[in-house]
Amino acid sequence: MSTDCNILAIDTAWAACSVAFARPNGAAVARHEPMTTGHAERLFPLMQEVLDEATATFADVEAIAVTVGPGSFTGVRVGVAAARGLALAAKLPTHGATSLAPMARLAAKELGGNPEAMDLQAGVTVLQVARRGNIFVQEFEASGRKPLSEARIIPIDDLEAELATADKHALTGSAVEVLRETAPAFLANRTIIAQDRSMATAGALIEVELEMMHPIKPLYLRPPDAKPQDGKSLLRQRS
User: Fold this and answer.
1) Which tens digit of pLDDT belongs to each residue from 20-77?
2) Shortest CA distance to 104 belongs to which of 72, 144, 133, 44?
3) Which of 182, 7, 174 lies closest to 83 in space, CA to CA?
């Protein structure tokens, strides 16, 4: 996304809290902190730190961008709720992208340092572990900016057939390490781009194709892990 306004980007979908702020045609100021819990407590202080570094305030923000999922249920909810709250309070436009989009952009930028490898790739496919033997999948064009497919969840056993037409894509994401153990033949002769967990995904979010969303809605793609026990219910306690 070529920013034509001051945009604040948020990504809390995975095991990190990531925030970036960018002015039109200016470099983004970004902070990225790995964490498995505590996204809700850290997000707004991190926003303030980013704005302070950019010599800006919340009043300078003209649009909000957020990853809507998939990812951890708590992380996705935290980011989406924050984006909704900020947009509602200040009447700001909201933009969203999948949590796989900034990963694709970072991978493409990594390939950009190797022109020969870039020329050989038709795109970037992000493969992220989704638990219970499943993988989140989404394909992007070679720049990593524009999606070529919808994000989806598939069984790991169906991956080879699912990606048969994307055999020239570079691969990135947490599921690549799983595939090294379970399906090494699938990875043969493919370009693999390791995830750098220290890179600011919110900064990359500003660079991808964003969708205008009103309201922002979470994209979970899978049912929650916690389910009520069969035949049991919680009774409301009377005061």
Assistant:
1) 999 998 889 999 999 999 999 999 999 999 999 999 999 999 999 999 999 999 999 9
2) 144
3) 7
What's the pTM value of the predicted model, to 2 decimals?
A: 0.89
Is 65:10 a contact under the CB 8 Å cutoff? yes
Locate CATH 3.30.420.200 in the chain: 101-193
* Cα 60 to Cα 106: distance, rounded to the nearest angstrom: 27
The single-letter DSSP state of residue 156 is G
Roughly what angle, to the nearest 10 degrees, separates helices 73-90 and 39-53? 50
Kind and range of the H or E run holding 75 = helix 73-90
Q: Which H or E run includes 82?
A: helix 73-90
Nearest CA to 66 among 219, 195, 222? 219
Q: Which residue has 């925030």 as its token pair? A: 19
Assigned architecture for domain 101-193: 2-Layer Sandwich (3.30)
- CATH superfamily ID and name for 7-99+198-212: ATPase, nucleotide binding domain (3.30.420.40)
